[in-house]
Amino acid sequence: MGNKGKSLVVVQLSGGNDYLNTVVPYGDEEYYDFRRTVHIEQNKVLPIDKVYGFSPHLAPIKRLYDQGKVAVINGIGYDNPNRSHFRSMDIWHTAQPDEIGTEGWLGRVIRDLDPNAENVLTGVNFGRGLPRALGVRGVPVASVGNLDTYGLFPDIKDESAKKLALDAFAHMYGGVQGKDPVLNFLGQTGMDALKGADILRTAPQKYSSAIEYAANPIAQGMKSIAQVLLADFGTRVFYTQHGSFDTHSGEIITHAKLWDEVSGAVGDFYDDMQEHGREDEVVVMIFSEFGRRIKDNGSGTDHGSGGVAFIIGGEVKGGMYGQYPSIREADQLEGDLHFNNDFRSTYSTIVEKWFGLDPVPIVNGHFEQFDFVNA
Predict the structure, then answer these.
(1) Nearest 10 degrees: Cα torsion 128, 131, 137, 138
(2) pTM of model > 0.70
(3) What is the DSSP string of 275-291?
(4) Range of 182's domain?
(5) CA 202 to CA 156: how far, in whole Å?
(6) φ and ψ at 244, to 5 degrees?
(7) Is residue 207, in this structure, part of any structural domain at all?
């Protein structure tokens, strides 16, 4: 069942976040040689040391880094990088770089945390659809677009009419058990949705906080995660995403806005957890499917390899983990950064050291682990 009470929040930066303009090698002159226009000025960087620093648009994350609460995972990726958004994200979701996976790694985590599927809210996604990372047959996961209006038949205002509709829904989905495998699956999915919606819609009523989240989608998503986590429904895995980080043009403005939103949202979420004395019970993992090319294209950057991930939380041992890849021309991978640590090492660390689960079947193998969280 794993370590009780510990939760994971995964924030997906969809589209391929520019590593070089996130954790900036501002002390390396070659960065400015390769990035003639799409760069962060030296005097604006928030220094980590004399070579590397955060983009000024990560100020809330830098504040937490200075408190020792942020692990920066440098050079994260996998062998033979794929520059297709769909395929690369699929690799991250299934933890299978060499074949097409059928199960999501977080779905496996949820299954191991709740093997009898006793809690339909062990995993909750905030956003439309269900990310592949959460998808495993027989593992219920609630997918919420807007927590304030979430529920079945929310547009039916009359309570008696709504009750009739919900009764019909329950009868329709609950009366097929055992008759047909497909109908059985649909019936269980429908009943899980019915139970999950009924519980989740009570979360905002239970929530009180002095934190004022911004009005953008990622901030509101993190607020919804806080509401559900603090309602103590037993949710262990949360997922949300923001983008698009696919900055082929106009990167300076777009990338700054996106990181202002993400960093602000994560900073507010941490402060919210701290206000409620829960910061030691949750870690946030931020990742993207790949980085961008070392040379800019004049106004943006194209798909690359090698990236950065962040692990944030009260029980995180902050600092720089993994080696920042060299940007020297002789060290490049066809104009890209080389990855130097497998993303499954980060997954494996979270699975075993945070959740107390066996990582091997979840991440498909044995991988060297970091020590960025207190076991």
Answers:
(1) -60
(2) yes
(3) HTT-GGGEEEEEEES--
(4) 151-200
(5) 17
(6) -100, 135
(7) no
